[in-house]
């Protein structure tokens, strides 16, 4: 019988190993991140591939670091296909969009608008390498995008060589914020 890691709600099931399954609700990204981090820590061997591309111009990110990201629509991707129309506290997303548009809140000074992300160096030999951010905070990302915010702050929750390789090999990982739909 496979081991099941209990997370908030059994909405999705992912098989990690032959005998390990993760079940989680879309909003339980903290639990998923912890499970992936723990699995990476337990990994004993990862095939190292030669990387002929240069990392010049890239500063090594560290977990917990807060960085500014320009042009969020191009550099910050969502992992979910859809989002709720309300935050967990019941507030409507449109309320935050209006507050951002009216400059009542500023993503560069409002700490609760710092998005948690995983960051990976991705690219290929033709286009070069770039940083790609994958958010854990989809509803706030959508609000920032809808309000027309160009610069945002993100806090790096996951990074490093293993995640870089994962992101490179996970074809189609992430979607543009403009492609997010609302749950029914």
Describe this structure in words.
By secondary structure, this protein is an alpha/beta fold. It has two domains: 1-42, no CATH class; 60-184, Conserved hypothetical protein from pyrococcus furiosus pfu- 392566-001, ParB domain (Alpha-Beta Complex). The protein is 24% helix and 27% strand. It contains five helices and ten strands. The protein has helices at residues 29-42, 72-75, 93-101, 138-146, 161-169, and strands at residues 3-5, 12-15, 20-24, 66-70, 76-77, 82-83, 115-124, 128-135, 151-158, 181-182. The strands form three sheets. A five-stranded mixed beta sheet has the order 4-9-7-8-5. It has a three-stranded mixed beta sheet with strand order 1-3-2, covered by helices on one side. Strand 2 (12-15) and strand 3 form a beta hairpin. The longest helix has 14 residues, at 29-42. Mean pLDDT is 78; it is low at 5-10 and 44-54.
Helix and strand layout, with pairings?
Blueprint: E1 3-5, E2 12-15, E3 20-24, H1 29-42, E4 66-70, H2 72-75, E5 76-77, E6 82-83, H3 93-101, E7 115-124, E8 128-135, H4 138-146, E9 151-158, H5 161-169, E10 181-182
Parallel strand pairs: 1-3, 5-8, 6-10, 7-9
Antiparallel strand pairs: 2-3, 4-9, 7-8
Helix pairs in contact: 3-4
**Helical element count?**
5
Spatial order of the strands forming the largest sheet = 4-9-7-8-5
- Based on the coordinates given, report the CATH architecture of the largest domain: Alpha-Beta Complex
Overall body shape = globular
Largest sheet: 5 strands, mixed
Number of strands: 10
Order of helices and strands: EEEHEHEEHEEHEHE
Number of domains: 2
* Name of the level-1 CATH class of the largest domain: Alpha Beta
């Amino acid at each position: 019988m496979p081991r099941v890691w209990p997370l908030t709600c059994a909405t999705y099931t992912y098989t990690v190993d032959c005998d390990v399954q993760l079940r989680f609700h879309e909003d339980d990204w903290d639990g998923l991140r912890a499970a992936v981090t723990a699995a990476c820590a337990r990994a004993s061997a990862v095939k190292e591939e030669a990387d002929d591309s240069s990392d010049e111009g890239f500063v090594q990110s560290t977990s917990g670091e807060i960085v500014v990201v320009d042009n969020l629509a191009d550099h910050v991707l969502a992992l979910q296909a859809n989002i709720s129309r309300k935050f967990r506290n019941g507030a409507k997303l449109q309320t935050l969009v209006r507050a951002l548009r009216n400059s009542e809140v500023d993503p560069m000074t409002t700490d609760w608008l710092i998005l948690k992300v995983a960051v990976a160096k991705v690219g290929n030999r033709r286009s070069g390498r770039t940083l790609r951010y994958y958010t854990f905070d989809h509803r706030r990302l959508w609000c920032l995008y809808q309000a027309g915010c160009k610069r945002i702050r993100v806090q790096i929750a996951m990074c490093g060589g293993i995640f870089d390789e994962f992101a490179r090999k996970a074809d189609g990982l992430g979607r543009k914020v403009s492609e997010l739909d609302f749950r029914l």
